[in-house]
Design brief:
By secondary structure, the protein is of the alpha/beta class. It has one domain: Spore Coat Polysaccharide Biosynthesis Protein SpsA, Chain A, CATH 3.90.550.10. Helix content is 30%, strand content 22%. It has helices spanning 11-19, 37-48, 52-56, 97-107, 124-132, 165-171, 186-195, 228-242, and strands spanning 27-33, 58-64, 84-89, 112-116, 120-121, 139-147, 153-154, 161-164, 197-208, 256-258. A six-stranded mixed sheet has the order 8-4-1-2-3-10. The protein has a four-stranded mixed sheet with strand order 5-9-6-7. The longest helix has 15 residues, at 228-242. It is globular, with a radius of gyration of 18 Å. Mean pLDDT is 91; it is low at 1-8 and 12-20.
């Protein structure tokens, strides 16, 4: 995806980048990874081509959800990336990407987080606007979406967010009790909407990469269809938690190590 230069970056960040060449990290991009080496390589390529002003305002965190064959650490990293932190969950648990997001949000050192899936590229033009806009710490922001290869407009992604680290943890993080059950990450969104205002940035898209363009853009080695038992347990657990008959939201329950 080509880089679009625009006037949206704030004068403060531009002045810092030009006069001192120092970094003012404002946003951390957080990706969960599981057996996606080609897709991660594309992410690195895109991020390394961001304008310097964006890279100076950006950190990147990748959390490998214990990939057994293609660990994220083995993917070549271009030299022009912004500061990158790579963590790895110690045990391979089916559909544990919510734990990976929690780890990324916990380890981030910037005030703002942009959390999205590994198969969603954040265009430079979207980041420029996000960095420069007047932000409301009590709101969370969602994005429009296009196809990466054709720019065809798609429905917004329900699991991509821009918010402060503080708000993420005020919402409570993703509930790791639902690990192993595909599709329960919407519960984070339900809690977010009870606590904060959602602001749609529909004209500022993310770009979804399909598996026809990058073969491992989506998870290929784990079935998305839940077993009957997992599906039933997911509904039961959701009901028990809603009725306060089960423990609250569980976060940071997985052992992990820093790789970079």
């Amino acid at each position: 995806m080509g880089v679009l230069r625009s006037p949206y970056l704030s004068g403060y960040l531009c002045a810092v980048a030009k006069k001192t060449a120092s970094r003012v990290a404002l946003v951390t991009l957080v990706f969960a990874y599981y057996e996606n080496p080609e897709m991660l390589a594309l992410q690195y390529k895109e991020i390394s081509h961001y304008p310097l002003e964006i890279r100076n305002a950006l950190n990147v965190i990748v959390v490998d959800d214990a990939s057994p064959v293609h660990p994220a650490f083995a993917v070549t990293r271009p030299p022009s990336l912004p500061p990158l932190s790579l963590f790895r969950i110690s045990h391979d648990v089916r559909w544990n990407q919510d734990a990976a997001r929690n780890i990324g949000a916990h380890e981030a050192s910037t005030p703002w987080l942009l959390l999205t899936d590994i198969d969603h590229v954040v265009p430079a033009s979207t980041l420029e606007k996000v960095i420069a806009m007047e932000k409301q710490p009590g709101s969370f922001y969602t994005f429009g979406r296009v196809k990466y290869d054709s720019q065809q407009v798609r429905e917004p992604h329900p699991n991509s967010y821009f918010m402060t680290k503080e708000l993420y943890w005020n919402i409570g993080g993703h509930d790791e009790d639902f690990a192993g059950i595909y599709g329960k990450d919407f519960l984070f969104r339900k809690r977010a909407k009870k606590l904060a205002e959602e602001v749609s940035l529909e004209s500022w898209p993310l770009a979804r990469v399909g598996s026809t363009f990058v073969s491992d853009a989506g998870t290929r080695t784990i079935a998305r269809r839940n077993s009957l038992g997992a599906r039933a347990w997911g509904y039961l657990l959701e009901g028990l938690k809603k009725a306060k008959l089960w423990r609250g939201v569980q976060v940071l329950t997985n052992a992990y190590t820093r790789e970079i």
